[in-house]
Amino acid sequence: MPQQNYETVLAAVNQDASPLMELHKQESWEAVFQLCHNKRLVLLGQSSTGSQEFCELRSAITQQLIKNQGFNALVLEGDWPDIYQLNLYIQGHLPQDSLPQILKQFKKFPAWLTCNTVMYDFLIWLRAYNDAKPRGQSKIGCYALDLFNLQASVEKVIQYLEEHDAAAALEARHRYACFECARHDGRHSQTSEHYAFPFTYTQEVTELLLKLEIEAFNKVLNNSKTRADKFFYNLQYERFLKSGPSYYQALFNGAFSSWNVRDYHMAATVTALKLHLQKRLKKRPKIIVWAHNSHVGDARATEMAAYGELNFGQLLKEQHGQEVLSIGFSTYSGQITAAGAWGAEPEKKHLSLALAGSFEALFHQARWPLFLLPLSSTRFGELNPLSEPRLQRAIGVIYSQEDERHNHYYYSRLAQQFNAIVHVDKTHALMPYDMDFAPNKKFKKTAQKANSAQVTELY
Question: Which of 277, 269, 276, 232 has the alpha carbon at shortest distance from 71?
Answer without folding.
Answer: 277
